[in-house]
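task queued by scheduler; priority normal; single chain, no ligands, no partner chains; default sampling; output format set to structure tokens
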Amino acid sequence: MLNIIVKTFDELTANELYDLLQLRSEIFVVEQDCVYQDLDGKDQKALHVLGIKNDKIVAYTRIFKAGDYLAQASIGRVLVKKHEREHGYGVDIMKASIKAVEENFSETSIALSAQTYLKRFYNSLGFVEKGGEYLEDGIPHVMMVRG
């Protein structure tokens, strides 16, 4: 069972911040073999959606209100720890993130920059492609919008 907690940057404990940054690096830098600057100065504006199992962060996103990252509300840094992906936590953390955007920002239109190979996953959650494929940090992405 995944316990979902939504926190502002200032509400994160030092251990939570360390754990989520370590997990982002583990997946987006090491697993995907992509050297990029994860610490982009935007975490302070985001709400952080933590998926916790057995006191460990195993799923995560960060969400933004319209104008803080993209023109509309957005979800980013979507991840599930590799050995936890078989449990469907990607769907759980995304549904919780969509709900958090709606409840915290009163927004129903949500954008995200999806890695192209995950299009079907995001389609299943109501996101549709807007525009063509582009490279972000050397990885093919597509803009997707829901609502």
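post-processing summary
- The CA atoms of residues 91 and 125 lie 8 Å apart.
- The chain has one domain: 3-108.
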